[in-house]
TrEMBL record:
Residue span(s) of domain ABC transporter: 15-240
Annotated organism of origin: Yoonia maritima
Any Pfam family hit: ABC_tran
The protein's name in its UniProt record: NitT/TauT family transport system ATP-binding protein
CDD domains registered for this protein in UniProt: ABC_NrtD_SsuB_transporters
Taxonomic lineage of the native organism: Bacteria, Pseudomonadati, Pseudomonadota, Alphaproteobacteria, Rhodobacterales
Family membership noted in the UniProt record: Belongs to the ABC transporter superfamily.
């Protein structure tokens, strides 16, 4: 599968969130009237202040909980293996080797390691960890553990990957490196991505759509398109275009923080 590189407005729809509301324990309105169409090939960042409902939106798309109101519809229906999820914590099995952690989604579908060994090793190679296939998670740095978690989410080539602040705990250099590797891996797998972040710079570097959310109640208040070609390199990171997109996203984020109820 290759990434759909059609211009943003010409991409076929993958899923749609319509009038989503999520209320917790009767009175915490985490999301209200959230609408978002995700198209094939999009790299969407959900950007917004703490508590605006980014993680809630992601968990609803993941099917980990149900909306109080509204619907999430996949075009043509959601199939088995259409979704991969990466959380802020890598959540690896500490007793299992790296290759066995990455094999997990296949194992859950009844595939033996030997049936999918090539896919597992190929994905580990793409995240630069082929040499560590027999290591245990405790032998890896935080960035390496996160690479394993990403490889695990992508090994089955899902149509959509959901990522909830996966790099928030990493230092700046590791984060840049992982941002580069994530884009390379996304190209290899060809998936659509929804990525939650607090970082304006990260959202501009990675995504072609930045969806800015405001809190109380959580909803989408602005959308920006980062119309810069992929692959994105260090040259992009230091370009005037990058700085201009970052300024625009930063202004939108400030606006999101100031929006009254
Ligand atoms: N399980 C829950 N029970 C009750 N309230 C919750 C629950 N999960 C989230 N909330 C509340 O819903 C709102 C949105 O939370 P959410 O974690 O989705 O925001 P967020 O934008 O991801 O925040 P952050 O950037 O800090 O992770 C917050 O007010 C939060 O306290």
């Amino acid at each position: 599968m290759t990434v759909n590189r059609a211009p943003l407005r010409e991409r076929p729809e993958l899923l749609k969130m319509s009038h989503i509301e999520k209320t917790f324990r009767g009175d915490v309105v985490a999301l209200k009237d959230m609408n978002l169409t995700v198209n094939q090939g999009d790299f969407i960042s959900l950007l917004g202040p703490s508590g605006c409902g980014k993680s809630t939106a992601l968990r609803l798309v993941a099917g980990l909980m149900r909306p109080t109101n509204g619907v999430i519809e996949w075009s043509g229906g959601q199939g088995e293996g259409d979704l991969g999820v990466v959380f802020q914590e890598p959540t690896l099995m500490p007793w299992a080797k790296v290759k066995d952690n990455v094999w997990l989604p296949y194992r859950l579908r009844g595939k033996s390691y030997f049936e999918v060994k090539d896919e597992v090793l190929q994905t580990l190679k793409l995240v630069g960890l082929e040499r560590f296939q027999n290591a245990y998670p405790r032998e890896l740095s935080g960035g390496m553990k996160m690479r394993v978690a990403i490889a695990r989410a992508m090994v089955t080539k899902p149509r959509l990957i959901l990522m909830d602040e996966p790099f928030a705990a990493l230092d700046e250099i590791s984060r840049h490196k992982l941002n580069n590797d994530l884009l390379a891996l996304r190209d290899a797998v060809g998936c659509t991505v929804i990525f939650v972040t607090h970082s304006v710079f990260e959202s501009v570097f990675l995504s072609d759509r930045i969806v800015v959310m405001a809190a109380r109640p959580g909803r989408v208040i602005r959308e920006l398109n980062v119309e810069a070609p992929y692959p994105r390199t260090e040259e992009f990171r230091t370009s005037a275009d990058y700085a201009a997109f970052a300024r625009e996203a930063s202004d939108a984020l400030h606006q999101a923080m100031e929006v009254a109820v």
